[in-house]
Structure formats: C-alpha cells, structure tokens
Amino acid sequence: MEASTYLQPITRTEQGLDPQDWSELRQLGHRMVDDMIDHLATIAQRPVWQPIPSEVRQRFRTSPPVDGEGAEKAYEDFRRYVLPYAEGNLHPRFWAWVIGAGSGLGMLADMLAAGINPNLGSGDHAPTLVERQVIDWMKQALGFPAESSGLLVTGASMANIIGLAVARHAKAGINVKEDGLFPAPARMMFYGSSETHNSIIKGLQLLGFGKQSFCPIGAGTDFKINIAALQDAISRHKHDGLKPLCVIGNAGTVNTGAVDDLAGLADLCAEHGLWFHVDGAIGAPLAISDSLRPMLRGMERADSLAFDLHKWMQMPYDVGCVLVRDESQHREAFSEAAGYLSRMPRGLCSGERWLSDYGPELSRGFRALKVWMCLKEHGLRKYGELFEQNIEQARYLAGLVESSEELELVARGELNIICLRYRGRVRDEQSLNALNRELLMRLQEQGIAAPSVAILGGKFALRVSICNHRSRSEDFDLFVREALRIGREIEKSAA
C-alpha cells in the first residue's frame, strides 16, 4: 500500500490560547467579577454619561497588536479607557431611547454562556432546549398559541425583518424562495402609522420591496393609527392594481409609547386577508402584567410579533424575540437543505427541527441563557410590577412638568414615555427649539441625566423614556430641578 502523502511529522511546537497557569486567569477573573459588581452597586454615584477625552479617543486609532500584551494589560485598558465612558444606561437617570439597564445575574449569565460557547444554530444539545423553553415561556406570557414558533434574535429590528419575511413567503402569491420578487405582477404594499419604527422601512428595503412599498397612515392626536384612513388606503390600492400584503401595528411607538388599536387592526386584516404583524419592541412584554394586558388586546391575534427582552425586560444586550403563529410558514420561509446540515437519527446531528430553520443565521450565540436565568431568578410577576412602576413614574414626571409654569408637556403616551420642553418666557418657536437643544446637551454633558430627542409637530422635545429598574422618584425631582436651572441659565445668556 502506497504511503499517504499527507502523513508528515509536525515540526512546529504546537500551541493554543489557554493560559500556561490557570491560577493567574482565575485570579484575574475574580477581580473582574468584583470590579463589575462594585461598578453596578455604585452606579448612581457616578455621572450618567461623560464626554470621551481626545487622548482617550486617540487610543482607539492605533494599529492592531502584532504581539500580545497579556490579559492583565488588556483588562487594565478596559478599566481605564472603556468602563468610564460607557453609554450610561445602567444609571438610574438614563432615559435616552428605550434601553434596559441590565442586571447582575444577567451579566454573569453572559459569562457562563461564553464559557461553554455553543452554537445554537444546529445540533442536539442542552442550550437549544434552553432557547426553546424561553420561547415557550414567551408564548405563554404573551398569549400566543402553544403550537406557534419563535426565535431569539439580536433585537426587535431583526425580529421585524423575520416577521416581514414570513409575511412575504405566506402572502406574496409567488415562490419567493425560488424566483425572488421578479414574477410579482404588482407592487406589494405594507401599511403602518406614520409613527412606525424605521426598522420596518429598513426591513422592506432589505427584503427587496423598497421604501415605496410602505404606505404611512396618519396618526391622530393620540399618535395611534387612523384605522378609517388605513381602510381607505387598502381599498384604493386594490382598485389601482396594487397588492396589499401586510399591516404593521405598534404596541408602543418609539416617540410617545402609543399603542395602536390592535384588535381593530386584527379585524381589518381578517377582512382583507392580510398578514398582521405587531412591532411590540417596547410594549409587548406588558402583557405579563394583569393590569396592563388590556391595552394590548388584539396583539394575541397577530400572525407575527416582534419584541425586545433587552429593553423593558432588563436583559443584557442583545436579545430580542419573534413569534410566528403558523410554525410551518415560519420554517418554510427559512429552511434550506444542505449536506452539512443533514439530520441523523441519533447523536449530535439528530433533531428534526434546528433553530437555524427559523431565521437567516446558522451561527447563533447562547443569548437564551441570560433570559432563562433571569426569569428563574425573579419570575414573571416581578417584571410586571416593574412595568407598572415605570408607568407610574412617568405619570409622576408628567405631574412635575405640568405643575411648573416654565416647562411644557409636549406629549404623554399611555406607557413610559414623556416628551417635554423648557419654555420659560420664550415664545418664538425657533428660539425654543434652539434653547431645548442646548438644554439636552448640557444635561448630558454635566452627567445629570440622559434624555433623548423627539421632534413632534415641529417642536424639539426632551424625550424621557422610563424603562429603568433603578429609577426612583427622587431622580425625577432632581431632573426637573436641574432642567429648570439650566434652562434659566440658557434663557438668561440669550437675552
């Protein structure tokens, strides 16, 4: 038998990435855990946010290291140049956008997930059971049927894209997987209010429909979709030879937290045979609370639902979820056979349905573990109580604003978002907008609080999105007091 040409001795010294002395890594790891727990425990004593000095920025413009500096030096650089200049969302007065504050166990769960480092796209192993159980828990908590399907993803933006992709597969009337959109006889139309999140537009662009396939429907003074106008648009488009395909309902809009009439939208979709997708990035988890669930009536009738767990559910970034009512439509939209994905009757490659069959990614991290552990730690009831607490805090802040002659309440939704501005004695709208722009930046730069921006009816407003489990009433008192102080300073300097 001829000798193999591949069988040659290995001449180099074989090496890997494990430390030669595990005790050193153990010691560093304990220090990291202690430092981060101290950081969480004392977060309220630091500025919410602070500008990054130019000399620190410069450190992130260097060439990649050719030879390593060691774990101790890498951690020291993190501690000095990254940790002090983080986004600030752990802080009780961080109310910019809708970003959760994370939790201690969630942080540690991410360490455990990285420790075993599984790929949840394929194979028969316990981490996939964890994700399936988390999805089952979410279906039960949000009122979806047990036979529906779901997937954990990076966030609601990706969850929206998956929901729209399944809608395309189910309602296009052509074989999109085989032929794409080329055989479509008419433009397919998607509908949502003018308050719909831009991830829907980006999703339609990514899926090949383009921005022109989205028909924005005007919202009322309550920032909810006008269903009569939606009905008219669908009828008009049918008459014009277009193909209405999907309606997107909002369970908590990004500007004001408005919740569309989801039951009314479900009825309309049933009447016209349209796919009903709900973007519940902010508000869908509120169904966990018995007192808040009624405002989401009709969400349980959606064909697909997107929501985040790293927002109001306080899981560390990143983790969102999509649920799809019809499991077969969900799986058919994404499942694609390949030899390397062959299923075996036994062993690691067993299992009829892999999680990669329900989304575009084959490589998937173990983001389910932090959700699973945090839900076990606190239970659903606790999260429902935190939702109710934040909404009550929003009412409290609205009351503080309305009781001040110098502040104006620009918008107050049903949920956790307050939009306000400083008025003082200024009456010119352009000057008011400039004043409040400056007010926002000074609040952030001075480390006092971190609201964000909303432009409503041409008014520049400070948008306070309260989904922070560390916020307390005294934080809102301080915020209003400091907003008034800075607003007066700006007004005085401009006089």
Explain this structure.
This protein is an alpha/beta fold and 495 residues long. The protein has 3 domains: 23-86; 118-365, Aspartate Aminotransferase, domain 2 (3-Layer(aba) Sandwich); 380-494, Aspartate Aminotransferase, domain 1. The chain has 14 helices and 11 strands. The strands form 2 sheets. The protein has a 7-stranded mixed β-sheet with strand order 1-7-6-5-4-2-3, sandwiched between helices. A hairpin with a 4-residue loop joins strand 8 (407-412) and strand 9. Helix 6 (156-171) packs across helix 8 (198-206) and helix 6 crosses helix 11. The longest helix is centred in the last third of the chain and has 35 residues, at 368-402.
Count up the domains.
3
Q: Mean pLDDT across all residues, rounded?
A: 96
CATH architecture of the largest domain: 3-Layer(aba) Sandwich
The percentage helix is 40-55%
Number of strands: 11
Shape: globular
Low-confidence stretches: none
Ends distance: 97 Å
> CATH H level of the largest domain: which superfamily?
Type I PLP-dependent aspartate aminotransferase-like (Major domain)
Radius of gyration: 26 Å
- Biggest sheet statistics: 7 strands, mixed
User: In what order do the strands lie side by side in the largest sheet?
Assistant: 1-7-6-5-4-2-3
Please work out how many helical segments DSSP would assign: 14
The fraction of residues assigned to DSSP E strands is: 5-15%
Content-based structural category: alpha/beta
Output the helix-strand order: HHHHHEHHEHEHEHEEEHHEEHEEH
CATH topology of the largest domain: Aspartate Aminotransferase, domain 2
